[in-house]
Amino acid sequence: MSDRRQVVVIGGTSGIGRHFARSCADQGHDVVITGRTEDRTKGVAEEIGGRTRGLALDLSDPERIGAALAGLERVDWLVLSALDRDHNTVRAYRPDAATRLLTVKLVGYTTVLHSLAPRMTDDSSAVLLGGLASHRPYPGSTTVTTANGGIGALVRTLAVELSPVRINALHPSIVADTPFWSDKPGAREAAVTRALTKRAVTMQDCTEAIAFLLTNRAVNGVNLSIDGGDVLI
After folding, report:
1. Fewer CB in 10 Å around end: N or C, the chain?
2. At a CB cut-off of 8 Å and minimum separation 6, what does 108 contact?
3. Cα 232 versus chain centre, distance
């Protein structure tokens, strides 16, 4: 197909990243997903099917990112969705856990873009995944809030430095059908109650939002929140 894209999804073995990768594979695009371990990543790539392949990549080790991505020749769409979960409070602070999460989300994401920028064209675009904890903190979200707030700022400087490549970010609220939230009915119900749409955000909603940010050529340097019109904002 003449409009086939070269798509790279960092953190494409689960959750939103996997859902988006499958959507791209179903449309006939060439898709590369990354995950921390080679066996699992290649296994998920086979499950997604189509023109999908897997690469092992650990964002917590930025010095090895360039070598891991060296085989990629061109990148049209880049989605950075890898994350670490961290429940970390100031009173019971664990610097090692905080360092890992901030390395993954901020240093790791930036290093991926540094490594792949030479293989992106003027028409390429990237989307970084953050989250609404950036401005809606909760007990234990000290590091998560810091990381997602950093994504919001990072997008703006990346858009300037990598111009004309477009860089945007997506910040979803609780995504009800991701593995992390599937066994937390109380949190899901609270999100539905707060949303003016009276429904929770889904992975399909996120995939459609990512596609919009990647394809709309007038959207750049934007932090897009999707939460159904949360009445607490």
Report:
1. N
2. 59, 60, 62, 65, 82
3. 24
Task: Please list the residues that pair with 21 across neighbouring strands.
Answer: none
pTM score above 0.90: yes
Q: What is the dihedral of CA 64, 206, 188, 11, to 10 degrees?
A: -10
Q: Provide the token pair at 57.
A: 């990549």
193: Cα within 13 Å, side-chain hemisphere? 6
Q: How would you classify residue 55: left for phi > 0, otherwise alpha for psi between -120 and 50, otherwise beta?
A: beta
| Position 108, amino acid | G
Q: Is 78 left (phi over 0), alpha (psi -120 to 50) or beta?
A: beta
Give the pLDDT score at 197: 85
Q: What is the mean pLDDT of residues 18-24?
A: 98
In contact, 105 and 83? CB cutoff 8 Å: yes
Residue with tokens 């999100």: 191
Residue 185's pLDDT is what?
75
User: Taking the mean position of all CA atoms in its chain, how far away is CA 124?
Assistant: 16
Over residues 137-147, mean pLDDT:
90
Residue 113 to residue 85: CA distance in whole angstroms: 22
Predicted local distance difference test score (pLDDT) of residue 233: 52
Q: What percent of the chain has pLDDT over 90?
A: 76
